[in-house]
Amino acid sequence: MYVNATLVAQLVVFFILAWFTMKFVWPPIVKALDERATKIAEGLAAAERGKQSLELASKRSAETVREGKEKVVELLVQAEKQSQQIIEEAKAQARIEADKVIAGAKAEIEQEAARAREALRERVADLAIAGAEKILRREVDAKAHADLLAQIKQDL
């Protein structure tokens, strides 16, 4: 066994194996590695787009929240103004009602006072007639009695 012949045989087998590997094995491996590199690149690009989209969505949501807070503050101011207006209208209505009640009470008091005066006049007239009858001890006729009573009412 010669070392040269073994070495040459091993070189031939090595080159055949290298050629076979480069022709049939290496292209699918390179293709798989390229596909994997492409998928990784696409994943990184998608992650970057997602990050930008997240930042944009965060800005939009912050703007929406700010606008919502402004609207809430505006609605609260409007509600406060409206409540003050309703309170003022209720106070004005209450004043009007109170004035009506006071006016009605005054009118009723005046009517009662007028009735009391009228009743007092009639009572005084009756007493005056009764006194006059006792003094004169005679009866006055009905027409004269009515005229005298009306005159006394007018004088009182």
From TrEMBL:
CDD domains: ATP-synt_Fo_b
Membrane-crossing residue ranges in chain numbering: 6-26
Task of the protein: Component of the F(0) channel, it forms part of the peripheral stalk, linking F(1) to F(0). The b'-subunit is a diverged and duplicated form of b found in plants and photosynthetic bacteria.
A single GO cellular-component term on record: endomembrane system
Chief site of localization: membrane
A GO term, aspect molecular function: proton-transporting ATP synthase activity, rotational mechanism
Lipid bilayer topology: Single-pass membrane protein
PANTHER family: ATP SYNTHASE SUBUNIT B (PTHR33445:SF1), ATP SYNTHASE SUBUNIT B', CHLOROPLASTIC (PTHR33445)
Family (UniProt): Belongs to the ATPase B chain family.
Coiled coil: 69-126
Top-rank taxon: Bacteria
Subunit structure: F-type ATPases have 2 components, F(1) - the catalytic core - and F(0) - the membrane proton channel. F(1) has five subunits: alpha(3), beta(3), gamma(1), delta(1), epsilon(1). F(0) has three main subunits: a(1), b(2) and c(10-14). The alpha and beta chains form an alternating ring which encloses part of the gamma chain. F(1) is attached to F(0) by a central stalk formed by the gamma and epsilon chains, while a peripheral stalk is formed by the delta and b chains.
Keyword Thylakoid: no
Subcellular location: Cell membrane; Endomembrane system
HAMAP family: ATP_synth_b_bprime (MF_01398)
Protein name per UniProt: ATP synthase subunit b
Keywords of this entry: ATP synthesis, Cell membrane, CF(0), Coiled coil, Hydrogen ion transport, Ion transport, Membrane, Transmembrane, Transmembrane helix, Transport
Family matches, as InterPro entries: ATP_synth_B-like_membr_sf, ATP_synth_b/b'su_bac/chlpt, ATP_synth_F0_bsu_bac, ATP_synthase_B_chain
